[in-house]
Amino acid sequence: MSVAELAKTPQTMASDGALKIGIVTPYGYPHPGGVNEHVRHTHDALRELGHDVWILTSKYGRERATEGNVVRLGTGWSIPANGSVGRVTFGRGLNRQARTVLAEHEFDILHFHEPFVPFLSPALLGASRTVNVATFHAFGGFSPSYWLGRHATRGLVPKIHGRIAVSGAARHFIGRYFPGDYRIIPNGVDIDRFVRAEPMEELRDGILNILFVGRLEERKGLIHLLRAYHRIRKRRVDARLLVIGSGPRMREYRRFVATRRIRDVEFLGRVDDDAKARYFASSDIFVAPATGQESFGIVLLEAMAAGLPIVASDIHGYKNVVQRNQQALLVEPRNHRALAAALYALSRDPELRLRMGESGRDKATEYDWVHVTARLVEYYREVRAAVLAGGGPSA
What we know:
This protein is of the alpha/beta class. It has helices at residues 3-7, 34-48, 94-105, 120-127, 144-152, 168-175, 191-195, 222-234, 250-259, 273-282, 298-305, 316-319, 336-347, 350-364, 369-389, and strands spanning 20-24, 52-59, 66-67, 70-81, 84-90, 109-113, 131-136, 162-165, 183-184, 208-213, 239-244, 265-269, 285-288, 310-313, 328-331.
């Protein structure tokens, strides 16, 4: 769409006031996941700032096509991807649906999260006649899907007027396939939820609580934490391991614990946000043993907001969030002995735990959703002004 055509549309009326924003997530909102958590918080924060915000996503099962400010197009399917589970949207007439929804809503901004995930996001991007901003979350090694996708999406790339990466690692990764200028705007955290959370009395019994939160899949590294925990228990550390999350490796991990008779490992499954915050408030150490392919690490922000010292893998995505020996002890990925040594050191040093926890809580304020969303709105306006002026956004 040309600048002249854009200037004639109703969207230009909102350049200085409230914006009408469509947030596009191909991951079946509100299904659990880091991107959808990001979408939920920015949606809520943007609405509190007075903007008219809608979420455009795919439909799974018997979900409604429209539910509040959520509009669903096509049908989503889960597929293995990047050591986790990805989602792809199919549907007869998906392009037509995209044109109809966008014509009805006349958004000022369309904000795409991972804009090239098939086929919902490309359909909406192709049909868009407004200002398009994209956030890239992924990080990893060589990606065949991105390598192939850069050719398949060649005609769509120029329609993205503003590009955001959630971290330097994510910017480096996506820049290999789609070179350009990227603004880093990180994930955020609901600090108030973790600050006001009350500990669970049954867990404040003098036993050291070690917390893991994540999907139970290989790349999240729980098996290495289980080995490390087994090791420190042999060194007579009186501890309890709390595991929040579900996933395809649940049975394998339970069997590992049972066959080795590892005591005091509690598999808690999925919990709601309030319960999760209470588990953080009840814990003494947080562990993030991911093996790689993490662009940011939202769970690290949650641990810092809760004032917990962290033991984490020494990977690019995590080093964008925590500082070594300040908020976290960083250890070699997949090295359960190094993980055990860090846990043992923290278990024996309550003053170090307190000092690292306080440092984390101070640093977490930088990532409050209010601050992050204010930066996002500033970028929306910057990009929109540049498009209307006939130029491009500054980096």
